[in-house]
Amino acid sequence: MRSVSWHSVMLCLLLLAGMGLSLAGCSQQVQAPRPTPTPTPNLQAVQAWIQQAAIPLTTTDPQAALDDLQPLQQMVGNATIVGLGEESHGSHEFFTMKQRLVEFLVEKMGFTLFAIEGSWTAGMLANQYVLTGQGDPQTVLQQFHEWIWNTQEVLSLLEWMRAYNTDPTHAQKVHLAGFDMQELAAPTFDDVVQYIQMVDPQQATQVASLYDGIRPDPSISWSAWDGEYFQQSAATKQQYIKNAQTIGALLQTNQSMYEGRSSPQAFALALQDAEVIVQSTQLSALDPNTPKNLPVGNNLRDSGMADNIAWLHAHADGGEKMILWAHDGHIGASNSGGYITMGQRLRQQFEAAYLPIGFSFYQGAFNAISPDGMQVFTEQNPPKGSYNETLGSVPLPLYLLDLRAAPAGPVSQWLAEARDFHELGVGYDPAHAQSDDVTVSLRQYFDLVIEIQTVTASHLIPLQY
Q1: Is residue 20 assigned to a domain?
Q2: Is 268 in the same domain as 323?
């Protein structure tokens, strides 16, 4: 079983060994008691600054006017890559609030590419829908093979993007991409083979054969094929890596000739498709039952996603101004859990042109996978002493905060301290509710934060694959 988070692969395998998942009969549980760490020093000064500096927001409803988001324009400034995080992968208000931000960035600031923490292949298929209307949006969502995106909220966003592009007054269209190397499907492999067939037909048969075993078989269900791949031996998976790398090397060796027979743009896309396939084989070769593979897998995945985003920024239609949609743990721009995050890599490469916006909640519900299957969980309060606790202790139901504007003294000290930031992955065990938390300096992790006092569970669409 593969997951949106390599960390969560490990957790979910431990939770769900030998278990089938079902969206039916979702129950609700409440978190176990948390330990009490040292309280925040100068708490009143920090709370006073948050209340004074926070921009109250009116609503999370994407159907509402966007006037309350106007201060965001100055905060974003000249940034060309804006990351939108989420503390939980399964909370309704994170998704709807993020749709509002997407609409604002597109309509008011001219952003033209929306990229999601999802399959590179599915992103291409979704892009066809938002640009041309080709396909059914619910079917398009199914291609991501991830329950977290298979929701009414993400469907609403997809339909908004299509409606925006349909409007003839919008000369500049908004594009969509996935930047994850997981859940690749046959079209990505086929695109590489077809490109080789065009520029070097004598090599096409060999290239297609090198993808045997790696290319998903569209004649069987995704879950069946994924299960078969997972059971392959380590030696077989290492051979898959070598085969995929051989195709990438063929493209690089013949770049000048292939560009002459096609175009630099067509070559760049074929090479990138081949590189994403290499990333996928490398990640899939790691045994998630081996704990030492956890940091290796996290680094591989976040490094690959950052590389894919950089490629999209340089080469994709609309990529000059990008919106990223992912978990806080990927968006965050500092070291997290002992590995270099995607956001940290983007900050190193793009500096101030990358703007990470974190999302936090104080209490509420979320969907996650547990030992009992898919469930709705409720947390009554965040961990004691965490950044989330302090952010939520201010009596504002919904607000935007620019962490870069913090004054010197107690507030800057608080933001610089290494403290827990609560994060929830695709898997959740109430007995280990803080398993995905990170210890970071909030000011290094995010530039802006959106705090939502109370959240509810996202609205799942049954996943059929």
Answers
A1: yes
A2: no
